[in-house]
Amino acid sequence: MIRFDNVSVEYPNGVRALNDVSIHIAKGEFAFVVGPTGSGKSTLLKLIYREVTPTRGRVLFDGEDIGALKANQVPYLRRKLGIVFQDFKLLPQKNVWENLAFAMRVIGRHPRDIRRRISEVLNLVGLTKRCDAFPHQMSGGEQQRAAIARALVNHPTVLLADEPTGNLDPDTSWEIMQLLEQINTHGTTVLVATHDSQIVDRMRKRVIQLEAGYVVRDQEKGAYQHSTLTEDLCCGA
Ligand SMILES: Nc1ncnc2c1ncn2[C@@H]1O[C@H](COP(=O)(O)OP(=O)(O)OP(=O)(O)O)[C@@H](O)[C@H]1O
Ligand SMILES: [Mg+2]
């Protein structure tokens, strides 16, 4: 579904953020991207939503070269993606319901579909009773649930999450990760960039580890740190 073929990214200031990355994310997978600060995790996700284009190599989404999309095709790519960030990025002047409705209105969905879908996703994330709350009236965990609901309203095939638990305490982080896992079991492909070693160790999902822009490990059912006791390495082809 998402394929990186020998992808390198060099920013205009000369920083090499990714080096010769080749990975494949299959439909329905759940994978973590881990690595120290500056190792290229966000850049890897940005390539998928075309915030960044490769300097070398290609990123393919269902066989289509993301880097070669014309500017007017990018919104169609992004409709297939739900994106969640550490700082939630909810619209502060709108309540939860309005934040979600806005994301559906911009792509021209019918008001009846909007009402139906919003009640569905709010139920999924457990926020039905908070639908009229504004972001500043909610806890971090609730805001992240709202952001996840907004990412899901338009039925994305892939959910990208960049440090989704970076601002949350351990219990809330775990709840959010359980929610992402539940979304994954419904068929959505989920890719999470994180520093949260406890969560990665508890979830035992695929781990793609970056160091200075290189993929140094791609392991099924991996832990945050590479353990030589687990030898089920896969080469991510
Ligand atoms: N727009 C940019 N222009 C120039 N350099 C950038 C830009 N964005 C990122 N970089 C550099 O590219 C490298 C990789 O950055 P990236 O944000 O992908 O890392 P990261 O693994 O997400 O880090 P963190 O854990 O801190 O979020 C870093 O050296 C960073 O300084
Ligand atoms: Mg980052």
Task: Give structural notes.
It is built from seven helices and ten strands. The chain has helices at residues 41-48, 74-79, 96-105, 111-125, 140-152, 170-185, 197-203, and strands spanning 2-10, 16-25, 30-34, 56-61, 64-65, 81-85, 158-162, 189-193, 206-211, 214-219. A six-stranded mixed beta sheet has the order 6-7-8-3-9-10, with helices on both faces. A four-stranded antiparallel beta sheet has the order 2-1-4-5, covered by helices on one side. Helix 3 runs parallel beside helix 5 (140-152). The radius of gyration is 18 Å and the shape is globular. The mean pLDDT is 95. The site of adenosine-5'-triphosphate has 12 residues, from helix 1.
